[in-house]
Amino acid sequence: MNATVLSLQDVTVAYGRHPAVHHLSGAFASGSLTGIVGPNGAGKSTLLKAVMGQLPLSTGRIRREGLRPADIGYLPQAAEIDRSFPISVGDMVALGAWRHVGLFGGLTRQGTEAARAAVAAVGLEGFERRPIAELSTGQFQRVLFARLVLQDPKLVLLDEPFASIDARTTADLLAIIHRWHGEGRTVAAVVHDIAQVREYFPQTLLIAREPVAWGPTADVLSTENLRQARAMAEAWDDDAALCRAPEPDRAVAA
Ligand SMILES: Nc1ncnc2c1ncn2[C@@H]1O[C@H](COP(=O)(O)OP(=O)(O)OP(=O)(O)O)[C@@H](O)[C@H]1O
Fold first, then answer.
1. C-alpha 203 to ligand 1 mean position (Å)
2. What are the ABC transporter domain coordinates in residue numbering (predicted)?
């Protein structure tokens, strides 16, 4: 079995008194490609933010096995990114190289070449000087992927990378995700389209605030598991107490 890159032990994350992720245990194996799925409000974005250290844990522990912050590439949901910032495509992509330059340092020639290659990898040659505010949603998502390509992370976390994105761009971005997978990186993406997960993601984590199942996609996305996730979502009580103990068979392993 592959080594673990990221492991979660009884992780609970709450907003005030309202738990959004509840007693989640399991692990992302090194080189795995995982779709994170679940109903709206299931805690998928919250989980990624907790992994990034942006939210505190109410219980449990996250182990980022030997990963430095620069080894983790994170793409938040599009709605959380301010596109009014006056910056060009080329400069936005170059931000992906932040770990290779000093505070006031510019990119080396090698870095500039790598940035150009990253822009080309996402099909945006010729757009380098364009302000990001003038891009379509799909073009902007390509820019964010180019930034990740340049960052060269070992673990890539993507929050709804295909939301509001056209089919052509989705196909191109899926190809980049598969290239990352082929290079041995660990990738996890929140995806809403179950058919897409079945086709492109070998592993799946299904959550409905509490874990439902985590493992090979064909096993996880069973009719029964999907039914259970829907039923759990319908039963949500946002005024519930912070935490109730999980039933022992709720904790799932990768
Ligand atoms: N900043 C916040 N403050 C308070 N509650 C929040 C906050 N962010 C999310 N929540 C709540 O936490 C729960 C989980 O939200 P989260 O965004 O993690 O779910 P999700 O699975 O990513 O949903 P979606 O698929 O709709 O994006 C929801 O009930 C949501 O309303």
1. 23
2. 6-234
In the chain, domain spans: 1-67+154-254, 77-152
Query: 51 with 237: CB under 8 angstroms?
Result: no
CB contact at 8 A, 96 and 174: no
- The correct CATH number of 1-67+154-254 out of 1.20.1560.10, 3.30.200.20, 3.90.79.10, 3.40.50.300 is 3.40.50.300
Instruction: Out of 2-16, 102-116, 138-152, 217-231, pick the least confident.
Output: 102-116
Q: What is the pLDDT of residue 62?
A: 97
* pLDDT over threshold 80, residue 45: yes
Average pLDDT over all residues of the chain: 89
Single out the residue of 244, 187, 197, 186 nearest to residue 225, CA to CA: 197
pLDDT of residue 204 exceeding 90, the answer is yes
Dist. CA 165 → ligand 1 center (Å): 21
Q: Looking at residue 75, what is its pLDDT?
A: 95
In angstroms, the CA 94 to CA 171 distance is: 24
Q: What is the ipTM of this complex?
A: 0.97
Alpha carbon of 88 to ligand 1 centroid (Å): 31
Q: Whose CA is nearest to atom 1 of ligand 1?
A: 15
Q: Which atom of ligand 1 is nearest to the CA of 207?
A: 21
pTM: 0.90
**Binding pocket residue ranges, ligand 1, CB within 6 Å:** 15, 20, 38, 40-46
Coil vs helix vs strand at 157: strand
Longest dimension (CA), the chain: 56
pLDDT at 241: 57
Closest atom of ligand 1 relative to the 238 alpha carbon: 29
